[in-house]
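can u do me a favor
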């Protein structure tokens, strides 16, 4: 948490109680919460929290490379506190988002086929997760 606060300060961000609460809420999560989820989980403790605060804070966290902002779902934005390169699998039936390991070799193979400067890679896979697949085949 201290490293994250230091990273935000280096960017010149003001450290507010709402920003700290968003940071705490996201740290260590594996469920890729949406902005709506973050809002619902924090509005009891911070009745004045707004979506603008959530989006601006998560943008700062992403710029500090502390989280990833995911656009895997065209209806909402999700947040991933794991900034390391990996892919995401989005189940089109239940809506869950899963992390998929992405090794350096795979990334290297993708990058060798382009002359572009690549600053960020986001790979999304879509389909039915194992649980939903069971329900579809029964």
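np, heres the sequence
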């Amino acid at each position: 948490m201290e490293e994250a606060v230091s990273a935000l300060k280096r960017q010149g961000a003001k450290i507010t109680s709402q920003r700290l609460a968003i940071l705490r809420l996201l740290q260590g999560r594996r469920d890729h919460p949406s902005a709506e989820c973050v809002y619902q989980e924090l509005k009891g403790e911070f009745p004045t929290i707004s979506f603008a605060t959530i989006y601006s804070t998560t943008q700062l966290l992403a710029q500090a490379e502390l989280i990833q902002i995911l656009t895997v779902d065209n209806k909402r934005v999700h947040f991933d506190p794991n900034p390391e390169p990996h892919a995401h699998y989005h189940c089109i039936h239940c809506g869950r988002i899963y992390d998929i390991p992405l090794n350096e070799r795979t990334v290297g193979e993708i990058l060798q086929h382009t002359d572009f400067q690549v600053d960020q890679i986001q790979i999304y896979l879509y389909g039915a997760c194992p649980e939903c697949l069971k329900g579809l085949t029964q």
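The domain at 2-70 is CATH 1.10.10.10 (Arc Repressor Mutant, subunit A). hope that helps!!
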